[in-house]
Write a structure and sequence with these properties.
The complex is a heterodimer of chains A (about 110) and B (about 120).
Chain A (H helix, E strand, L loop, with lengths): L2 E3 L4 E5 L4 E3 L2 E3 L5 E7 L6 E5 L10 E2 L10 E3 L8 E8 L8 E3 L3 E6 L1
Parallel strand pairs in A: 2-11
Antiparallel strand pairs in A: 1-4, 3-8, 5-6, 5-9, 7-8, 9-10, 9-11
Chain B lengths: L4 E3 L2 E4 L5 E6 L6 E7 L6 E7 L2 E5 L7 E4 L6 E5 L8 E8 L11 E2 L3 E5 L1
The chains are: A mainly beta (about 110), B mainly beta (about 120).
């Protein structure tokens, strides 16, 4: 079955602490993985895409095919990082472009 | 370009009524998607268009749901005989892609929140 699992509904960290938002997936094939973020009263927006291998707003994510994981990390959390984070996968090369989303993790960065 | 636009932002209706939502994608995007999101869940895929062709539909899309993209630009999603369980946020997204395996990331609209009384 195709599935994305985000085990934590809520993650609270203090400002300046490291952050790791977990994402595990189940997919038969080679999916494309994404992290989307939704700030308060804003629309979903792309944060990271695994094939880009970029660092956006200090966040990075590495695709681990062996562990089927795509965890999102940031070494020093900022208050403005507080938001809802969704991990998503797409079939990409297999020709299906729909996204399968996880249930999301709310990140709260405390002052 | 203001991004993906959805109308209305909110819709309140009585059970049994029909509702229609509109989505205007980013102008050069050829792919358009509809998702539904309920409280505490991530968005769930409903259907997707490439230009005017509806290429994939989820099992979530019952016979009461129909989507169109008549000229390959804007899209409408209609729900007939609404039920309490239809209450959700309906999200539209668009992307640009050519051929198998080629797809830029999806851009999302603000969504239409549907409430069934």
């Amino acid at each position: 079955a195709q599935r994305v699992t985000q085990p934590e509904k809520l993650l609270s960290v203090f400002k300046g602490a490291p952050v790791e938002l977990k994402c595990n997936y189940s997919y038969s094939g080679s999916p494309e993985l994404f992290w989307y973020v939704q700030y308060s009263r804003q629309r979903l927006q792309l944060l990271l895409r695994h094939i880009s291998r970029e660092s956006i707003k200090g966040f990075t994510a590495d695709l681990n095919k062996g562990e089927t994981s795509f965890h999102l990390k940031k070494p020093f959390a900022q208050e403005e990082d507080s938001a809802m984070y969704y991990c998503a996968l797409s079939g990409g090369a297999s020709g299906t472009y729909k996204y399968i989303f996880g249930t999301g993790t709310r990140l709260k960065v405390l002052a | 370009d203001t991004g993906v636009s959805q109308d209305p932002r909110h819709k309140i209706t009585k059970r049994g009524q029909n509702v229609t939502f509109r989505c205007d994608p980013i102008s050069e995007h050829n792919r358009l998607y509809w998702y539904r999101q309920t409280l505490g869940q991530g968005p769930e895929f409903l259907t997707y268009f490439q230009n005017e062709a509806q290429l994939e539909k989820s099992r979530l899309l019952s016979d009461r749901f129909s989507a169109e993209r008549p000229k390959g630009s804007f899209s409408t999603l209609e729900i007939q005989r609404t039920e309490q369980g239809d209450s959700a946020m309906y999200l539209c997204a668009s992307s640009l892609g050519f051929g198998t395996g080629s797809n830029q990331p999806q851009h999302f609209g603000d969504g239409t929140r549907l409430s069934i009384l």
